[in-house]
């Protein structure tokens, strides 16, 4: 049976690339978006052009109060498009960047990061557990910045570190259902993250390229296919791991 993967925050960046990579690998996709509906449906169209099935649903991963209604809309989409009550893979990708030194970080910035990158991941996964098929997979996105430090990313990296610990506990508690849970931690990538800073600022790009063994920063195509591969049956025995995909950054 064709596997169905839910990718949050898939209207652009790594989420978009992951959704397309899953489709290229033969899977169907439910993708979520926060506000970029046109971009999200453009991704759906690309997936459909590959002969796969896809649908886009709006979701604010920072607002736990909306998760119940999202789950109902997801259930309706699963019944209508796939004639099933469950899906197979959850990729908790949705996120944003807030760069500030510790002395200058506001409570509002801190709360946004916690709500999107940690609280949202925890409670969305909790809400979706009855819909994830036994033997399924969960991939949570972290960051290379949990292993190395770069000024201005203290709060962001701290919540990503919390996700890494959470992933291990998910793997332990969901193991009885045959659900494997892993964390993927990208290094510096050329995306819209932080307004496209790594992509559009040559000096910053060079800083990260120079500290990477393979001599460049990453591209979305370096990450999406890896996540799609991690979801495949070939990697069914990989569980509770933090997998850094950074080209050898700061080694």
Distance between the termini: 41 Å
Question: How large is the radius of gyration?
Answer: 17 Å
Strand line-up of the largest beta sheet: 3-2-1-4-5-6-7
Give, in order, the helices and strands.
Answer: EHEHEHEHEHEHHHE
Low confidence ranges: none
Overall form? globular
Estimated helix fraction = 40-55%
Fill in the CATH topology: Rossmann fold
**What is the number of helical segments per DSSP (H or I, 4+ residues)?**
8
Content of β-strand:
15-25%
What is the C-level CATH assignment? Alpha Beta
Main sheet characteristics: 7 strands, parallel
CATH homologous superfamily descriptor: NAD(P)-binding Rossmann-like Domain
Number of domains: 1
Could you explain the architecture of this structure?
By secondary structure, the chain is of the alpha/beta class. It has one domain: Rossmann fold. The chain has eight helices and seven strands. It has helices at 13-24, 37-49, 67-82, 107-128, 154-174, 193-200, 202-210, 220-231; strands at 4-7, 28-33, 54-58, 87-92, 132-141, 180-186, 242-245. Strands 3-2-1-4-5-6-7 form a seven-stranded parallel beta sheet, with helices on both faces. The longest helix is centred in the middle third of the chain and has 22 residues, at 107-128.
């Amino acid at each position: 049976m064709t596997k169905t993967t839910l990718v949050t925050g898939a209207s652009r960046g790594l989420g978009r690339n992951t959704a397309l990579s899953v489709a290229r690998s033969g899977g169907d996709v439910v993708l979520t978006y926060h506000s970029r509906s046109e971009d999200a449906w453009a991704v759906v169209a690309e997936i459909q052009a590959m002969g796969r099935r896809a649908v886009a649903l709006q979701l604010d991963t920072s607002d736990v109060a909306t998760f119940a209604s999202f789950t109902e809309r997801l259930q309706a989409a699963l019944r209508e498009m796939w004639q099933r009550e469950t899906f197979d893979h959850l990729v908790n990708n949705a996120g944003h960047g807030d760069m500030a030194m510790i002395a200058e970080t506001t409570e509002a910035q801190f709360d946004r990061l916690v709500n999107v990158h940690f609280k949202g991941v925890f409670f969305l996964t909790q809400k979706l557990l009855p819909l994830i098929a036994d033997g399924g997979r969960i991939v949570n996105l972290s960051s290379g910045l949990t292993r190395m430090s770069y000024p201005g990313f203290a709060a962001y990296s701290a919540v990503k570190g919390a996700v890494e610990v959470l992933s291990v506990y998910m793997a332990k508690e969901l193991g009885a259902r045959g659900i494997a849970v892993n964390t993927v931690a990208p290094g510096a990538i050329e995306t819209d993250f932080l307004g496209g800073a790594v992509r559009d600022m040559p000096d910053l790009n060079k800083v990260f390229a120079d500290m990477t063994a393979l001599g460049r920063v990453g591209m979305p195509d370096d990450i999406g296919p890896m996540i799609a591969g991690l979801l495949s049956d070939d990697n069914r025995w990989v569980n509770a791991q933090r997998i850094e995909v950074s080209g050898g950054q700061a080694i």
